[in-house]
Protein backbone atom coordinates (compact mmCIF):
# COMPACT_ATOMS: atom_id res chain seq x y z
CA UNK A 1 0.00 0.00 0.00
CA UNK A 2 2.90 2.34 0.75
CA UNK A 3 4.12 2.00 -2.84
CA UNK A 4 0.70 2.97 -4.17
CA UNK A 5 0.60 6.13 -2.08
CA UNK A 6 3.94 7.19 -3.55
CA UNK A 7 2.64 6.73 -7.10
CA UNK A 8 1.57 10.16 -8.45
CA UNK A 9 -0.99 8.60 -10.81
CA UNK A 10 -2.69 6.85 -7.90
CA UNK A 11 -2.77 10.07 -5.87
CA UNK A 12 -4.25 11.96 -8.84
CA UNK A 13 -6.92 9.29 -9.28
CA UNK A 14 -7.92 9.43 -5.59
CA UNK A 15 -8.03 13.25 -5.61
CA UNK A 16 -10.17 13.27 -8.77
CA UNK A 17 -12.51 10.67 -7.33
CA UNK A 18 -12.98 12.64 -4.10
CA UNK A 19 -13.61 15.87 -6.03
CA UNK A 20 -16.23 14.19 -8.21
CA UNK A 21 -18.03 12.87 -5.14
CA UNK A 22 -17.99 16.32 -3.56
CA UNK A 23 -19.19 17.92 -6.77
CA UNK A 24 -22.13 15.52 -7.16
CA UNK A 25 -23.20 16.12 -3.57
CA UNK A 26 -23.00 19.88 -4.15
CA UNK A 27 -20.34 20.75 -1.59
CA UNK A 28 -17.25 20.95 -3.82
CA UNK A 29 -15.07 24.04 -3.39
CA UNK A 30 -13.92 26.11 -6.35
CA UNK A 31 -11.24 24.38 -8.41
CA UNK A 32 -8.51 26.85 -7.44
CA UNK A 33 -9.20 26.38 -3.74
CA UNK A 34 -9.30 22.61 -4.19
CA UNK A 35 -5.92 22.62 -5.95
CA UNK A 36 -4.45 24.81 -3.22
CA UNK A 37 -5.66 22.37 -0.55
CA UNK A 38 -4.34 19.33 -2.42
CA UNK A 39 -0.96 21.03 -2.93
CA UNK A 40 -0.75 21.98 0.74
CA UNK A 41 -1.50 18.44 1.90
CA UNK A 42 0.85 16.86 -0.65
CA UNK A 43 3.77 19.17 0.14
CA UNK A 44 3.21 18.65 3.87
CA UNK A 45 3.33 14.88 3.48
CA UNK A 46 6.47 15.14 1.36
CA UNK A 47 8.11 17.43 3.90
CA UNK A 48 7.27 15.19 6.84
CA UNK A 49 8.46 12.16 4.88
CA UNK A 50 11.79 13.78 4.09
CA UNK A 51 12.21 15.13 7.62
CA UNK A 52 11.58 11.70 9.13
CA UNK A 53 14.52 10.22 7.18
CA UNK A 54 17.02 12.35 9.08
CA UNK A 55 18.53 10.73 12.15
CA UNK A 56 18.68 12.36 15.53
CA UNK A 57 21.65 14.64 15.90
CA UNK A 58 24.60 13.42 17.92
CA UNK A 59 25.21 16.90 19.38
CA UNK A 60 23.02 16.57 22.45
Structure description:
By secondary structure, the chain is mainly alpha-helical. Helix content is 73%, strand content 0%. It contains 3 helices and no strands. It has helices spanning 2-6, 8-25, 31-51. The radius of gyration is 16 Å and the shape is elongated. The model has no long low-confidence stretch (mean pLDDT 81).
Q: What percentage of the residues does DSSP assign to strands (E)?
A: under 5%
Number of strands: 0
Oligomer: single chain
Distance between the termini: 36 Å
Biggest β-sheet description: none
Average predicted local confidence, pLDDT: 81
The radius of gyration computed from the alpha-carbon positions, rounded to a whole number of angstroms, is 16 Å
Brief account:
The protein has 60 residues and is mainly alpha-helical. The protein has helices at residues 2-6, 8-25, 31-51.
Pick out its properties:
mainly alpha, single chain, 3 helices, about 60 residues
Topology:
Layout: H1 2-6, H2 8-25, H3 31-51
Amino acid sequence: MKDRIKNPVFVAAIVSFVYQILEKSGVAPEMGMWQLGVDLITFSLLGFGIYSTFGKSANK
